[in-house]
Amino acid sequence: MMTWTNLLFVSLLATLLILTVFSGVEGAAVRDDGKAEEPKGSAARVFMPEADASNFLKRRSRRYAKHQGEILAEQRVRLTADERRREYYDEQRSEFENYVEEERDEQNERTREKTEQWREFHYDGLYPRYDHNRHYV
Questions:
Q1: Sign, CA torsion 122/127/129/135
Q2: Which of these, 6, 59, 63, 105, could form a disulfide with 2 (CB 3.0-4.6 Å)?
Q3: pTM exceeds 0.85
């Protein structure tokens, strides 16, 4: 059975071993060499230099009027989202209506069968049977 000092000694020894083994490994931190690498290929089209990005954000203030094309694009996005939402809810309502109709038909069938069984069981033969589904004139 190990005492607490032996346990402490073993844990410190393991920590020291881990630190010595991994001391040569370079971290995942970003190096700050003072110069940024130039993006190549498609990255050059996606990312812009920091100065251009800050100027873009400064130009686009809260009171900046949107271009007509930007307004129209936002409206198109909103209208297509509304259309998708409308189609989704129409489909959900249609499925639910079909489900309710099937359930109602099944319930009516079960009720009709139970009523027929009740009539068969309670018929005493003294009066003519009356078919409730057909009305005689």
A1: negative
A2: 6
A3: no
